[in-house]
Write a structure and sequence with these properties.
Layout (H helix, E strand, L loop, with lengths): L6 E5 L1 H11 L12 H11 L3 E5 L9 H10 L4 E5 L3 H10 L3 E4 L19 H13 L3 E6 L3 H9 L4 E5 L1 H5 L4 H20 L3 E5 L16 E6 L1 H10 L1 H12 L5
Parallel strand pairs: 1-2, 1-8, 2-3, 3-4, 4-5, 5-6, 6-7, 7-8
Length: 253
C-alpha cells in the first residue's frame, strides 16, 4: 500500500466552551481564560497542519473576535465551520478564511449531531459556495456517508466533503455495528473520490478509535477537537497533538 501523509486539523471550539462557562460577560481589561488562540498556537508548535473553529449562530463558544485573531495570529490554514446562513456567509466573505466547512446547526444540540442535507439546501448552497470560492476559500460540506448527499456535494460545487464519523464513534464498542459504519464510510470515500472530491473526516475521534478508521481510503485530513482539548488537561497541548500525529502516521491509502 502507498503511504499517505494524513493531515490533522485541530478544532479549538471547546477551549472557548470552557472559557465561556466563566467569562460569558465581557468586562474591560479582564483576562478571560483559557484562550483558544493560545491553544491554537501551541497546536501549531506541535506540528498540526491546520486549525478548525466553528462560529455558531448562538455564539455558545467561539466569538467573532476569536475567529479574527485565529486568522491574524496563527500561521496555519484556518478552516471556518459555519452554518449556511446569510449572516455567516457575510462574516466569512469579510474574513477570507483558507477554507469553509458548511455544517448543520440545531440550537438544542450539545454539538453537531449529523450531516448537512445537501440535497434539501442545494439552491442556497450552490449560490453561497460560488461566493465563498470567489474570495479564495475552499469549501467543504460536513455530511453523512450517504451517496446521494455526496453526489449533490459535487453538483453544488464543493471542493471537499467532511464525512461525519459521529455514528462510528457512538457504536464503536459494538463490533458488528462498528463494521457496518466503517463499510458506509469506506463506500462514501470511494464514491467521493470517484466524483473528484477530497475526503476529510471528523467527529468523535480519539486515540482509542482513530486507528480503526484507517481502513477508509483517500483520507486527506482529520478534524479533531474535543478529545485533544480533553487530553491536553493531562499531558499538555503539544503532547496531546503529538500523540494524535504519531497515530496518524500509520495511515495508508
Amino acid at each position: 500500500m502507498k503511504k499517505m501523509k494524513l493531515r490533522l486539523g485541530v478544532n479549538v471550539d471547546h477551549v472557548a466552551t470552557v472559557r465561556q462557562a466563566r467569562y460569558r460577560e465581557k468586562v474591560p481589561g479582564m483576562i478571560a481564560e483559557p484562550d483558544p488562540v493560545g491553544f491554537a498556537l501551541e497546536a501549531q508548535k506541535a506540528g498540526a497542519h491546520g486549525i478548525t473553529a466553528h462560529l455558531r449562530e448562538d455564539r455558545r463558544h467561539m466569538q467573532e473576535e476569536d475567529i479574527r485573531r485565529l486568522k491574524r495570529e496563527v500561521a496555519l490554514p484556518l478552516n471556518l465551520e459555519m452554518a449556511n446562513t446569510a449572516e455567516m456567509v457575510k462574516f466569512a466573505l469579510a474574513l477570507k478564511p483558507d477554507a469553509v466547512c458548511l455544517v448543520p446547526e440545531n440550537r438544542q444540540e450539545v454539538t453537531t449531531e449529523g450531516g448537512l442535507d445537501v440535497f434539501g439546501h442545494r439552491i442556497s448552497l450552490q449560490k453561497n459556495i460560488v461566493r465563498l470560492r470567489d474570495v479564495g476559500a475552499k469549501v467543504s460540506l460536513f455530511i453523512d456517508p450517504d451517496l446521494k448527499q455526496i453526489e449533490f456535494a459535487k453538483k453544488v460545487g464543493a471542493d471537499w466533503i467532511e464525512l461525519h464519523t459521529g455514528k462510528f464513534a457512538v457504536v464503536y464498542q459494538n463490533k458488528r455495528r462498528r463494521a457496518e459504519e466503517l463499510k458506509r464510510l469506506i463506500e462514501g470515500a470511494h464514491f467521493a473520490n470517484k466524483m473528484g472530491l477530497k475526503v476529510n473526516a471528523g467527529h468523535g475521534l480519539h486515540v482509542r478509535n482513530v486507528c480503526d478508521l484507517f481502513v477508509m481510503p483517500f483520507l486527506y485530513e482529520l478534524n479533531i477537537g474535543h478529545s485533544i482539548v480533553s487530553r491536553a488537561l493531562w499531558v499538555g497541548v503539544r503532547n496531546a497533538v503529538k500523540e494524535m500525529l504519531v497515530l496518524m502516521k500509520e495511515y495508508r491509502l
